[in-house]
Amino acid sequence: MRHHREERRIVELLARGWGDEQISRELALSVRTVQRRIGPLMNEHRCASRFALGFKIGKHIRTEA
Question: pTM score > 0.90 for this model?
Fold first, then answer.
């Protein structure tokens, strides 16, 4: 469950335009861990860029709230 919340937070920060280093500091994770979380999410959601992932999922997250 922690990973799901963590991934959701990563996507929220990506949607804001944050970089890996900023996200890693915010979530107290290594930059490499952030990158390892982003890669599978990009594949799962068929996004070619991190920005597209943040936009696509971030839009979905906002409509849930």
Answer: no
